[in-house]
Amino acid sequence: MFRYVCPDFPDRRLISMDALKKKILAGKIDPVYFFSGPESYIKEELALLIKTAIFPSQDEASLNTTVLYGPDLSLGELASKACEYPMFTQRKLLIVRQFEKIRRTGSKEQQKHHEEKFAAYIADPAGFTVLVLDTDSADKKELDKTPFRELKNCRTDFPAIRYPDQFATERAKAAGWDFEPEALKLLVAYVQPSAREIAQEIDKIVLYAASKHTGNTIRATDIYDCVGISKTYNVFELEKALAERNMRLSSGISLMIMDREGHKEGLGNIVRYLTTFFMRLWKLSAPGVQQLPQGEIARLLGMYGKQEFFVRNYLGYMKKFSLTETESAIRALRETDAALKGLRPYPDEQFLLLRLMQDILG
Questions:
Q1: Which residues partner with 97 through β-bridges?
Q2: Domains by residue range for the chain, with CATH
Q3: For 41-58, how does the pLDDT look when each residue is reduced to its tens digit (9 = 90+)?
Q4: Per-residue DSSP letter, 13
Q5: Among the listed ranges 70-84, 138-152, 333-347, which one has the minimum average pLDDT value?
Q6: Which of 211, 332, 220 is nearest to 278 (CA)?
Q7: Rounded CA separation 279/236 (Å)
Q8: What is the distance between the alpha carbons of residues 184 and 181, in angstroms, rounded to a whole number?
Q9: Alpha-carbon distance 253 to 49, whole Å?
Q10: How far apart are CA 121 and CA 74, in angstroms?
Q11: Confidence label for 16 from pLDDT (cuts 50, 70 and 90)
């Protein structure tokens, strides 16, 4: 999921995030880290891991950790601050947020001087400073420009998570817990697909489950109770109603979801879930896919861990929708999504929902 460009190898080979964490926990701290990408929660966790690894106490960490912001300093000023000795400890931690917005002032000659000063520091960083540079920008064109290109061998990429179910499984496992298949499906359907949201929900669910039953398995009932999902009006009941091609029931369940979650947010969640649903049916329609082993089909559909259990459901759904109907449903979902984002006019969300159900099942 997250990839690290390791400075220890001249070919910049990529190692896993787990390997990077193990390296930090072993006390092998690099002098410069460049975190790039939108997944801020994981970046914050990794910065905290570095902080814990280099300081023996919280007092020393507080005294020698500085957080700066790109708009407040130039590259030359940053290099100067990195060269300042720490107070009463052997090392200091310097974190720069919004590094992509580093201040660029003065003449071209002055800016060039700042860039050269910064590049010289990166080439030969101070042994007493751990410098963490953080940017939300992950544009490859920008990363090839100064000052980012000087940091290419220090870069760790943090893209938005692509497979929330896989991330949730790994997160629960790290806490010593596992998911029932239905519980995992419920969680990823109703929690926003961000590392922060998933991690916070899992922390809450684990505390709740530990107080309710023995064993370290998260059950579907734990998700219903903690996330606040109706056991009658939810996207799984909607999925079943769609598979039965029951327009009245599908519309009714959808409207109840919207009443509970808010019309716009509820419809957005329905569109997101059904887009995944029909995209999986579309992938299954490719020649030879249905003859693959179940594990390979699961990976193709973006279903990991215990989500593989639901592959057989999708194979059954294939009999309910032709390829033409599936492609039509995907187009209708894209049109609805565009309307919700303000790109298409519409009277209200209920109208959008009923038109969507008509387009899918009419």
A1: 69
A2: 3-157 (3.40.50.300), 161-229 (1.10.8.60), 231-362 (1.20.272.10)
A3: 999 999 999 999 999 888
A4: -
A5: 138-152
A6: 332
A7: 16
A8: 5
A9: 44
A10: 14
A11: low
Q: Count Cβ atoms below 10 Å from residue 352 Cβ, excluding itself.
A: 22
Say which residues have a Cβ less than 8 Å from residue 66's Cβ, sequence separation at least 6.
Answer: 81, 92, 93, 94, 95
Q: Name the residue among 196, 256, 215 with its Cα closest to residue 232.
A: 256
Residue found under tokens 């390979």: 296
Indicate the Cα dihedral angle 213, 219, 220, 223, nearest 10°: 70
In whole angstroms, how far apart are CA 118 and each of 82, 83, 121, 242, 314?
10, 11, 5, 58, 54
Residue with tokens 């599908």: 250
pLDDT at residue 227 tops 80: no
The arrangement of strands across the sheet holding 3-5 comes to 14-16, 3-5, 155-157, 32-36, 129-135, 92-97, 65-69
Q: What is the pLDDT of residues 234-290, one digit of tens each?
A: 888 898 899 999 999 999 999 998 988 899 999 998 999 999 999 999 999 999 999
Q: What is the percentage of the chain residues whose pLDDT exceeds 90?
A: 49
Residues in CB range of 327: below 8 A, 6 or more apart: 282
Strand partners, 16: 3
Q: How far apart are CA 269 and CA 359, in angstroms?
A: 18
Cα angle 21, 25, 31 (rounded to 5 degrees) comes to 80
Which of 64, 125, 63 shows the shortest CA–CA distance to 94?
Answer: 64
Residue 7 is given by DSSP the state T
pTM beyond cutoff 0.70: no
Residue 260 structure tokens: 């509970």
- Three-state SS string across 160-208, please? CCCCHHHHHHHHHHHCCCEECHHHHHHHHHHCCCCHHHHHHHHHHHHHH
pLDDT for res 5:
46
Look at residues 194, 168, 269, 171 and name the one whose alpha carbon lies nearest to residue 228.
269
Alpha-carbon span 121 to 61, nearest angstrom: 23
Q: DSSP 3-state assignment of 94?
A: strand
Q: Is 322 helix (H, G, I), strand (E, B) or coil?
A: coil
Confidence grade of residue 161 (pLDDT, cut at 50, 70, 90): confident
Question: Which residue has 């999902």 as its token pair?
Answer: 229
